[in-house]
Amino acid sequence: MARGDVEAGSLRIAIVSTCALSTPPKAYGGTELIIAELARKLRELGHHPTVFATGDSTCTGARKALFDHGVWPPDPLAELRHVCAAWSRIARLEDVDVVHVNSAAALPFTTLFPVPTVATIHHDRDESLLAHYAAHPDVDFVAISRRQAELSWEVPFRATVHHGLDIERYPFGSGGNRCAFLGRFAVQKAPHLAIEVARRAGLPIVLAGEAHSVDRSYFDREVAPRLGPDAQWIGEADHDTKVELLQSARCLVFPIQWEEPFGLVMIEAMLVGTPVVAFACGSAPEVIEDGVTGFLVHSLDEFSRRLRDAENLDRRACRARARARWSASRMARAYTAVYRQAIDRWSNTEAGHTLHTRGDHGAALTKLHR
């Protein structure tokens, strides 16, 4: 594609996923799910995404970077080899308009391969990475919530794009008497508090998720002893099990104990009509519309009270608001605007101007690769 055609036409986008899990994941895995949703919707918008992921990935435009299967638990050196292989393959592509990376390990390669690059940060504030991000001012960084960007103010964010999902994969559910907890069994997610507030409210709760190896002692100490007839654990949930759990729940219990950068499960619950009760920290105030799609709370007593109040919320109104706000189509359009901004910024820089006068990015990348 000639550079002059980019503004009006479709884009050729190379997306570098992670190597920790397949894209999309079979169960746990928010980043990989979002990348799969984004690629599919970009194709529907007429763009041409190529996703460098694991060999067992099934998303739109999937290509193997290096590993046949996910490397779990996450391994920083494996991730480095993965992104190195991905960039090597990107260098062989023709007419790459923009590269979209999703890990810190991918950034140093931008100094070797001159192409507009967008980087989404998926984690909370990490002191060890701030200087690393600041060292790449030519990259267009994207936050996944305003709160995330506010807390990591040293990162040169150029946009905030909230996550989105395929709303048709989340049919309406009429709810029930029990509460639901869904997520990683870690102290930051606080499933032990989910059990506590449900018991205070006199409501049963079903919990789905697993403890990663680093969280096993927390699970054994704080969660396992609290399980019982009124607090049932069903293990890790695939998509269908997750949707069924949310559809049959009075509300999703989200008692986070950290500055959650987004919290994908919140919008999954809302999309089936299930309101979310959450502590008012992290991205929760951006995601939850208090009194419409759930409640924001500040204490355990208030939490328990709002669990009982959740049955009075209009589930169809909750779902309608979620479908309006959290679709993958909206996310893909937002990223398209970010990609075009990155391309425009690049072409206005000296390096970008040099590339533009020399030819398309694909030719330059191929030359560098050789």
Explain what this protein looks like in three dimensions.
The structure is a single chain. With 370 residues, the protein is of the alpha/beta class. The chain is 39% helix and 14% strand. It has a seven-stranded parallel β-sheet with strand order 3-2-1-4-5-6-7, sandwiched between helices. A three-stranded parallel β-sheet has the order 8-9-10, sandwiched between helices. Helix 4 (146-151) links the parallel strand 6 and strand 7 (157-160). Mean pLDDT is 93; it is low at 1-7, 353-359 and 361-370.
Q: How would you classify the helix and strand content by structural class?
A: alpha/beta
Q: What kind of sheet is the major sheet?
A: 7 strands, parallel
Could you give the count of β-strands? Answer: 13
Distance between the termini: 21 Å
Shape summary: globular
Q: What is the radius of gyration?
A: 21 Å
Uncertain regions spanning at least 5 consecutive residues: 1-7, 353-359, 361-370
Name some characteristics of this structure.
370 residues, seven-stranded parallel β-sheet, 14% strand, disordered N terminus, disordered C terminus
Question: What's a quick, concise take on this entry?
Answer:
The chain is of the alpha/beta class and 370 residues long. It has 14 helices and 13 strands.
Helix-strand blueprint:
Blueprint: E1 12-16, H1 30-44, E2 48-53, E3 62-64, H2 76-90, E4 98-101, E5 117-120, H3 127-134, E6 140-143, H4 146-151, E7 157-160, E8 179-182, H5 191-201, E9 205-208, H6 216-223, E10 231-233, H7 239-247, E11 252-254, H8 264-271, E12 276-279, H9 284-287, E13 294-297, H10 300-309, H11 315-325, H12 328-347, H13 350-358, H14 361-369
